[in-house]
């Protein structure tokens, strides 16, 4: 009798199959919650690598905020938007020839399509300079104290790549186009694009189309009147041919350089409405910048000397930025095949680095008479530019 009672009590304590399944499910659920919580806690300690898409027309919330200011669990687990990629881009003109415009008309509308320099063909999710700041979790994002504002096909990409060797310079690689296309997104949007910097480091960006954008000087001045501006200039005739060559590589069916250069070939009247011609009228564009910035805050870098004497030009830039001359001759070697100077060691790498394969495209043969007509056209503007800057660039 006593044995039967004990067996009955043991049976009463045993779990039915349904209860066993419920217990297992509860244990699995608790383990899953614990693992999820641990994962989120780990991810929260990692630095964020998210940078807004360069077109920036829309912003995406990475997580919604709760009342206590913490990001909710589900939002933390959502996939984040891809960071910037730095790839080769060429501008696309809406029409090959726009309506003719008076050269001195204040209402000239500069072509505001993609005025991107040729840059490396490979994709990069983040620049090494930004990665180094993010990785140590220190520093803060600041609005740029220096901006390379132009000019297209002058050598701005080479200058930026060379400058990034300097430990006190941090620059975003892709062109933000904030002051010409994305201004409505606001300064905080712009700040978020910048890499983190430490005390004493300089934040930089480069967008060559700023130099020919009428609104850009006032907008940059509104951000900070102390912003230092760098303009890489090049023989305007060579620059125009290089500009055309870049477009031709993407659009082989465009009209000839000669036909685009003139309004009327017989009279020799130059078509200044074509952006390739208009960009090279440096004196006219500089006038606009001098309304907002003193000449002492603008440095003009010779695109030709950036090739023949990169260390010398980089020395001037480092002085202008108030930095120690760290980038010197020892950082460069001349690549005979490309015809360009290359870095012996790029930032974040122990290997030599040359600009991408698109650098050094062979220019098409241009009628010498057309080249001479262009030189005659640019000469008075070049002379005025020399006077304004106090420097003869030797283009004539």
Tell me about this structure.
With about 400 residues, the chain is of the alpha/beta class. The protein is about 35% helix and about 10% strand. It contains 14 helices and 11 strands. The protein has helices at about 1-15, 15-45, 75, 130-135, 155-165, 185-195, 215-225, 235-250, 255-260, 275-280, 280-290, 305-310, 310-320, 370-390; strands at about 140, 145-150, 170, 195, 200-205, 230-235, 260-265, 270, 300, 330-335, 340-345. Strands 3-5-2-6-9 form a 5-stranded parallel β-sheet. Strand 7 and strand 8 (about 270) form a beta hairpin. Helix 11 (about 280-290) runs parallel beside helix 14. Residues about 5-10 and about 40-135 have low confidence and may be disordered.
**Nearest-angstrom radius of gyration?**
29 Å
What does the overall shape look like? elongated
Structural class, please?
Answer: alpha/beta
Output the helix-strand order: HHHHEEHEHEEHEHHEEHHEHHEEH
Task: Give the amount of beta strand, in percent.
Answer: 5-15%
What about the largest sheet? 5 strands, parallel
Oligomer type: single chain
Q: Low-confidence parts lasting 5 or more residues at pLDDT below 50?
A: 5-10, 42-136
Q: Estimate the helix proportion, in percent.
A: 25-40%
Query: What is the mean predicted local confidence, pLDDT?
Result: 76
Give the strand order, joined by hyphens, for the main sheet. 3-5-2-6-9
Span of the ends, CA to CA = 121 Å
Number of helix segments?
14
- Strand element count: 11
């Amino acid at each position: 009798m006593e044995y039967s009672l004990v067996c009955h009590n043991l049976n009463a304590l045993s779990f039915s199959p349904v209860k066993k399944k419920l217990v297992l499910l509860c244990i699995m659920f608790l383990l899953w919650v614990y693992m999820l919580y641990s994962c989120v806690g780990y991810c929260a300690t990692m630095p964020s690598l998210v940078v807004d898409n360069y077109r920036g027309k829309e912003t995406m919330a990475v997580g919604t905020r709760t009342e206590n200011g913490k990001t909710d669990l589900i939002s933390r687990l959502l996939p984040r938007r891809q960071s910037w990629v730095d790839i080769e881009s060429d501008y696309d003109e809406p029409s090959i020839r726009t309506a003719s415009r008076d050269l001195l008309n204040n209402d000239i509308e500069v072509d505001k399509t993609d005025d991107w320099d040729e840059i490396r063909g490979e994709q990069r999710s983040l620049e090494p300079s930004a990665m180094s700041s993010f990785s140590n979790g220190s520093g803060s994002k600041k609005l740029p104290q220096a901006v390379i504002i132009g000019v297209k096909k002058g050598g701005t990409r080479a200058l930026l790549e060379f400058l990034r060797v300097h430990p006190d310079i941090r620059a975003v690689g892709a062109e933000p186009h904030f002051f010409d296309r994305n201004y409505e997104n606001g300064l905080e949007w712009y700040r978020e694009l910048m890499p983190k910097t430490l005390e004493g480091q300089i934040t930089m960006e480069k967008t060559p189309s700023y130099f020919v954008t009428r609104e850009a000087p006032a907008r940059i001045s509104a951000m900070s009147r102390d912003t230092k501006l760098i303009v890489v200039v090049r023989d305007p005739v060579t620059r125009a041919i290089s500009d055309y060559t870049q477009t031709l590589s993407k659009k082989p069916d465009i009209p000839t350089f000669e036909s685009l250069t003139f309004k009327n070939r017989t009279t020799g009247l130059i078509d200044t409405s074509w952006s390739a011609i208009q960009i090279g009228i440096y004196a006219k564009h500089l006038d606009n910048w001098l309304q907002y910035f003193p000449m002492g805050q603008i440095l003009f870098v010779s695109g030709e000397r950036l090739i023949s004497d990169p260390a010398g030009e980089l020395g001037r830039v480092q002085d202008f930025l108030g930095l120690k001359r760290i980038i010197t001759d020892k950082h460069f070697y001349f690549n005979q095949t490309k015809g360009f100077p290359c870095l012996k060691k790029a930032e974040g790498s122990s290997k030599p680095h040359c600009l991408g394969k698109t650098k050094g495209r062979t220019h098409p043969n241009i009628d010498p008479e057309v080249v001479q007509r262009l030189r005659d056209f640019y000469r008075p503007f070049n002379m005025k530019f020399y006077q304004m800057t106090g420097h003869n660039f030797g283009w004539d």
